[in-house]
Structures are given as C-alpha cells and as structure tokens.
UniProtKB/TrEMBL annotation:
Example of a GO MF term: manganese ion binding
Family assignment from sequence similarity: Belongs to the peptidase M17 family.
GO biological process: proteolysis
Cytosol aminopeptidase domain residues: 314-321
Keywords associated with the record: Aminopeptidase, Hydrolase, Manganese, Protease
Signal peptide extent: none
Record's GO cellular component terms: cytoplasm
UniProt-listed InterPro entries: Leucine_aapep/pepB (IPR011356), Macro_dom-like (IPR043472), Peptidase_M17_C (IPR000819), Peptidase_M17_N_1 (IPR048816)
PANTHER family named in the record: LEUCINE AMINOPEPTIDASE-RELATED, PEPTIDASE B
Domain of life: Bacteria
UniProt source species: Pseudooceanicola albus
Name of the protein: Leucyl aminopeptidase family protein
Presence of the UniProt keyword Hydrolase in the record: yes
Amino acid sequence: MPKTPALTFAQDSAGALPLHVIETAALAPWLEAQPAEVATWVRASGFTGALSQACLVPGPEGRPAMALAGYGDAAARARSRFVLAGAAARLPAGDYRIASGLPEEAAETEALGWLFAGYAFDRYRAQSGVKARLVAPDGIRADRLEAIAAGEALTRDLINTPASDMGPAELEAAARSLAETFGARVEVTTGEALLAQNFPMIHAVGRAAAPHRAPRLIDLRWGDNGPMLTLVGKGVCFDTGGLDLKPASSMGLMKKDMGGSATVLGLARMIMARDLPVRLRVLIPAVENAVAGDAFRPQDILTSRKGLTVEINNTDAEGRLVLADALAYGAEEKPDLMISFATLTGAARVAVGPDIAPYFTDDADVAAALESSAAVVADPVWRLPFHEAYESMIEPGIADLDNAPKGGFAGSITAALFLRRFAGPGLRYTHFDIYGWAPSDLPGRTKGGTGQGARALFSALPGLLGL
C-alpha cells in the first residue's frame, strides 16, 4: 500500500508568517496604508493581486516579514475551485497564518484546498506537494477538514496505484488496513465461494482473471448504533472490456475503474475519523474484467442474486453487473440510506465533463442536501433523472434486463435505471456516476486520481440521517 501523506494544519500560530489575501481591486488602498518601503517592494515585485499570485515582503533585516496572496476578482475566482492553493504553491516552505483579506464565508473551502495542495503520489518517484503550511483560520472546523483531507488522500492513492499493484487482493488489503485503524470488521467472499453464497454476476465478471486476482466481495462494517448507511463502490481493478475488448486508447486509464471503491473507502475514512453515530456498511465487488477461455460472453444470460436475468450485450458494461449483486445484497438489510459510487459510463462524462459528479436520486431531500453541501466543500455535483420512460430500453425481451441497450442514447440514465432495479423499490437510494480523475494539474487537485461526490455527501449526512 502507498503511504498516504498527512495533510494537516500547522500548529505554531505565533511563529507563522502573516499572510494578507488581497483582491486586485483592493491592492491600491492596501498599499496606501503600508510604509513606503513595503509599497515600493510590492510594486517592484510585479504583484497585482491577480489570482494565485504570491509575494514575500522582507522586513528591515532582510528576513520575510509578511506574505501576500492574490485573490483576483469574482469572475476569476468563479473559474478556480481553490484559489489560495494556487498561491500556496508559489510560497516557500514554512508556516503561514491568515492576517487579513480572506472572506469568512470562504475560509473553510480555501483552507481545505490548501490541505489538498500538500498531496503528492510518491510511491514510484520521490516528489512532494506544496510545502507551505497553513495555520487553521479562526472559526473553521479544523479537525473535520483534516479528516476530509485524509479521506481524499486515501482515495487518490488507491486510484493512482496501477493495476499491477492494485488488484482485487490489494483492494481487500486496503479495506482491511482501514478497518484495523478504526476498529471495523471485514468479511470477504472470494472465488468459487461467490457462487456458493449467491453472487453469480460478481463471479462471472471476474472469473477469467488469474487465480491470484480472483473476484471477491468485500464487506466492511463499523458502528453499532444509529441509522444504517450502506456505501457500495465499484471495484473493477482493471477493465480490458472483456471479450468486447477495448481499443488501446480506451484502456489506458482503466486502472481508475475501481474509482468507486476508492471513493467509498475514502468516505468511510471520513465517517469513522469523525466518529459519526451511524451503522456503516461498505460493500465492494472487486474484480478484474479479463480475457481468457472462461470469460463471460456477449449474449450470455446471467441470473443475478436478486433472481433477475440479464442479457449480456456488451462485456464492457461489466460494472453494473458486479454492482447489481452488491446492491441487492445491501438492500436485503433495508438500510436507512444506500449510496453507490462508480466510474460507470462515458455518457456521464460527455454530459458534464470530468469536473462534475452527476448523481441520480428519487429523494428530493437528498438532492437538496447535496446541492447545498457541494458548494461549501467545493465538490460540484449535478442531478440527472431516473427517467421512467427509458425503462423499456433496458428490457431486451429474452431476459429481464439488458446490460448494454443499443442506440447509444441516455447511457448514464439507462445504467442508473439498471442499478435501481437491484436497490429498490422502497429504499432511499442514490447513485453517483463519477469520473475519478483530474486530467490536468490545478490548484489543490493534482493530475490523477481524485475524489468526487464524497465530500458533498459527507457534509450532507448529518441532515439526511438526523445525526
């Protein structure tokens, strides 16, 4: 397992360098209020208050006396999720404390982004994140933000690890390590035992993998009191597409096809670290969709745990198959809330791009809570519909369900409708169709694996579950 970096706030407020956050329009009046030598230095350095600029200002003895961070204007900030994280990347190592200029309502978001800027994936090459550390601004919930950052770092580490070192067994090890840290319990059903315990579609998708990468269902439980929350994460540790083989251009990022499982483990870490009064259950069907003589085939018909039959019209639509058995299993316990996360469809990316996490829910309270909390933790989400009129598209006639409807329309919606057949009816169920990957480096978000939707849900949980 990679060693997840500790993303924490600096503690030495007295020894930290004061940091002034300055909007472009506020620079001139700020300079007028400063000693002449400070104003001269800042102007000579080229600091304008533009977004993510940084400037060290020396004192009489030449040592830094203060730092400035550009905060741009409202239009520029609207295009950047974490503004101060960009300035932090331009500051030298050391501790900094906010002295002025940061709006109170932005303090939590900006402090969280600064924590994220400290992340780096260094398992295979020595590297580090931003070394400038922030003292937690007054009034923010520092422990909570550190718990969120630690969960996010776990998610990023798991996604970033290549499939050679992150197969089903390694994903199980990650779940066991997390459980050991927080006193949770883990049960795992592996290989042929999946058939004996009625998880036929998890077995079918993963049976062609090498024996040491055998399919499994990971079942983590934590907490004995409170409402029951069940998280289900897609754990396809590599997706070749199966016999409907992906082209090389589509296979290149398939190490991230376990992004749903990485997300629910990161979210579980947040929940357990904050000791939320819930009964938490995490279900991860962990498989490799490989090609071999016993791989499942196009037009096979599989019988699911729930008893619904599924015609396989594309072996590359395997994520919904493994999730279906896990969702059916989770629903048997009738949790108060069940959420699935999966890197499920390209259609979702076409609809909203890589930056937004689309989700599906029939529950207006869930939607309202997610929309409200997403803005606070800079975790954008967008509701898509469980559109009833498309139900017929997933009914092939020869079987109860079709795993890959023809036509190419509404692919994310039909996949979500497919999953809902196994989670419901009568259950509070929400599904996230995430991308799990940042295509380029941005402030607070390094290129590579990234969490989506988990922070918004974590912030919404107290209201949704009456905690």
